[in-house]
Amino acid sequence: MRLLVFCHNHPDLQPGGTEVVARGLFRALRDRHGVEGLFLGAVTAQHRERRPGTLFQAIGRHPDEMLVWLSHFDRFHLSQVDTWGLAELASFVTDYQPDIIHFHHLLYFGIETLDLVRRVAPKAKIVVTLHDFFALCPQEGQLLTTDGRLCPGPSGDGCRRCFPGRGSTDLVLREIAVRGAMAGVDLLLSPSDFLRDRFIAAGWDAGRIELMRNGIGAGAVAPPRAGNGQRRRFGFFGHINRFKGSLVALGASARLTQQGIAHDLALHGGTAHQADEFLTEFKAALEAAPDARHHGLYGAADMPARMAGVDWVVMPSIWWENAPLVAQEAFRHGRPVICGDVGGMAESVRDGVDGLHFPVGDAVGLARVMRRAAEEPGLWDRLAANITPPHGMEEAAAEHLALYRRLLGAATPLKRAMRAGGRARVG
After folding, report:
1. Which one of 142, 313, 366, 413 has the fewest beta carbons within 10 angstroms of its own beta carbon?
2. Which part of the chain is the Glycosyltransferase subfamily 4-like N-terminal domain (predicted)?
């Protein structure tokens, strides 16, 4: 089986949840199941300087992982109009002759790439994992209004309020273009029931969206902190931006300090690519929360050491989320999660079972729950004991391999060899 994976960016340059999951799945399929493939991460000059003469560049020491540059991407329309770049990409896909093409995001590649690969690789099966709501929502795929309210789904009037400078035609054309491009896809995957339900509520065909949980890689696990009966250390893990709710967490910490509640809040994550306005707000909020510390960017190898000093993982995102990797990581290390009471967060974390919920976006409500977590005897032990090990990457890889084989019609090795021009392939 020959696999071609498309993802927006590469986890070595931008360690977001989608990038980490997509690359981890690719490597598990390669290393554990012998699947031949290539991982293509779309980047811009913001992430890595482009070298002249080619769209492609190697990254690290992995010959099967490459960076791809395409210019002129329109985030509103999810459209890539770099015709020269798309032509070179088409030639690349034609030469590679993949059996499975798996998109983990359309950012930078654009919806045109879906049409392109269908045209130049007509026998390949195309899979798209919907890691967020970009296909539904032009507001950065957040389903969040410009004034910070949760949006249940796209609507003509609602979208115009978020984009007063655009007419109805732009919004309608965007939807038609995205749905048209997705029509050529063999299967859509959703990592959560919540995300799948949002797409179905927006009119997408339920029969074409299959649930497929994300997996998380194995590794060293941080033992429980020796808390002497006190569980007052909270950790935030993720990119420091407005959507992830770092300001909410800092507001809650400041309130606890004002109430005289002993605690510690450690924020782990970088601030790259954030607007000056937000960074100014973040700095002010950090200064107003004396029991909070920002520990900066971290990598996967750093996670056990950073998790070792934490009792609770706080996930204060102000949007719905989908299948948050942070919750899986917390559970892998045996840490209960405190999160907002909506969307993929509420689906991932069971209130009162393996974590606690608070009203999404509410710093006062978060402070109330954090105080309970710090003061209620036996609460941490009870919740930690109920944590179910998260879905592993090995299990996710086996499930994806079975899916790919099903899409290919369970072809025999002989048939695969004939399709490859006589050269047998693994898978």
Report:
1. 413
2. 15-216
